[in-house]
Amino acid sequence: MYENVNESPINFEPDENIRTCWENVYKELRSEYGEAVFRSWLKPLTLQAFYQGTLEVSVPTRFMKDWIQRHYSKNILDLCAAKDKQIRRVEIVVVQSHPIESGPNDTQDGPTGDVSTSKSNDNKTVLEDNPLFTELTSPLDTRFTFENFVTGKSNALACAAARRVAESANVPFNPLFLYGGVGLGKTHLMHAIAWEMQRTAPEKTVLYLSAEKFMYQFVRALRSQTAMQFKEFFRSVDVLMIDDIQFIAGKETTQDEFFHTFNALVDQNKQIIISADKAPSDLTTINERLRSRLSWGLVADIQPSTYELRLGVLQKKRAAMQVEVPDSVLEFLALKIVSNIRELEGALTRIVAAADITGQTVSLETTQDVLQDLLRSHDRRITIDEIQRKVAEHYQLKLNDMHSARRARAVARPRQIAMYLSKQLTCRSLPEIGRKFGGRDHTTVMHAVKKIEELMGEDTTIAQDVEVIQRALKG
Ligand code: ADP
Ligand code: MG
Question: pTM of the prediction?
């Protein structure tokens, strides 16, 4: 159902390398999981697109998507990434025209039951019957409701604002802009708003999609000369939610289109909800005009979670899973896994699954056993400061040289290596890294990363230096 968009400004069509990579991964999945599992779940996986590090594969039903996501997606990503390091994410999408081979039945029931019965309004019916709607909207996760969202100091404002938007008959602020780090609940809150609105205002058409999808579909519409329909369609929904707006980076035409859609909707008093990984002012890849527009409404951040919040999430999850896990294990996990809530949930699922398979009860001991790899990586979190110190030491420079403006090669090159390592070994963004290096711009960091990658291919001394420092850091 996707046509070739090869000549478009952004290329979503997977190239030969990606295709071969996917074919190999597909074969490996078959041999790894065996014929039965493969035929039931993995066989229908079809390569659809590749964009900005995301490999998009499709399955015919929502149920399959959820299942694969829960059970196989991590491994699929690992297999892909091992073959082609361009691939940083695997996204599973539902493409219904897919030939259904064999496999489980689709169950699409949300918490409010069958969504289609709520089409009470003509406009809504017309819009939702529009094939564009099916193509554009992303399915809502049934677990992402307000009831399942645990609040604490770190996310109280964001959650209250989300509830306010979901429950208000008119538009309380526009847009609602939610931002925060990975896995802290932005998508969860957006889905919760959509579910709540479906319950209380079923006549409204809510369109939820990622910024990447917006970009992808807009480029397709331009290609196939259906841009007018695309524009009209967007301007006619009641509520527009765009997740991860940071991915709209760079493309001026898409940003312009989004800007106009945005204004048209605000003018009509339609609610817009946006999420991003940073505050509007820090979205440096988005043009100034759009950036300032994004901060006109309410900007609410989600801070890194606290111990209490993490424990609360685990308790809720334990209750939902109806499993026996001692409090001490939950406390241990909440203490150890601090980075994001997705990982925290993943850890609990893993220990429960392991206990299930081995027939043991869950204890602190089994937990430490099962999560060995995960816990080790959390125990040793490398910081930019450490990297700077090690690099300075290696090249016998002063620590200050890492931040200074000195441009002499003997200083500048090691500094670039430190930037490169910061990108590789920490989860800091380019702007954050830039700031740590004497307030440099993110493009400087990007340039450094490219330069060192290049040099490592040409110059064995540099490759060895990087290797040695890296090993020292991982200790
Ligand atoms: P983000 O979009 O910010 O990267 P998600 O919304 O996808 O993060 O959240 C990641 C996972 O963590 C989801 O499974 C979500 O349900 C869960 N989660 C995050 N915050 C909370 C919370 N406060 N209460 C319950 N679950 C949460
Ligand atoms: Mg998200």
Answer: 0.60
